[in-house]
Amino acid sequence: MRVVVYRNEISHQWEKRNLLARWRAGAVTRDTVCDADFLLVTAARYHGTPATGSCPVCESDQLREVLWIHGDGLGRMSGTARSAAEIEEIVSTGRELRVHTVEVCPVCRWNHLLREVSASAT
Ligand SMILES: [Zn+2]
Q1: Distance from the alpha carbon of residue 73 to the mean position of ligand 1, in angstroms
Q2: Are 6 and 116 in contact (CB under 8 A)?
Q3: 24 φ, ψ to 5°?
Q4: Cα–Cα distance, 79 to 43 (Å, whole number)
Q5: What is the domain range of residue 28?
Q6: Distance, CA 57 to ligand 1 centroid (Å)?
Q7: Which residues make Cβ contacts (< 8 Å) with residue 74, sequence separation at least 6?
Q8: Could you report the per-residue pLDDT of 13-23, keeping only the tens digit for each?
Q9: Highest taxon of the source (predicted)?
Q10: Quick count: other Cβ atoms within 10 Å of Cβ 19?
Q11: Which pLDDT tens digit goes with each residue over 53-80?
Q12: From the CA of 64, how far away is ligand 1's center (Å)?
């Protein structure tokens, strides 16, 4: 049985709330908060899983969470979107990586890093 251990989690919920508060107050424009590029939106469509709740900007129910992996030992896989199953597969080969969970709305292109965590095999 393969078991992935997740540790050293860093939450970015505070930054997200802070940015949304500034947007609601008119301090930042919608273009600034809704700046997901083509790659991110495509990754959200094909690799994303439905997020809990609706988009905080446009209230669409299409909001998704995408997992991006980063790591020195990953080679060209570093900086790509992966499913949870693929991450488990990679970790089972003994490699350690950082997983960034990014919230993306394909409708208005809102996006924000939610949390990052280290993943490794037991
Ligand atoms: Zn949206």
Answers
A1: 34
A2: no
A3: -65, -30
A4: 12
A5: 4-121
A6: 5
A7: 90, 95, 97
A8: 999 999 999 99
A9: Bacteria
A10: 18
A11: 999 999 999 999 999 999 998 999 999 9
A12: 10
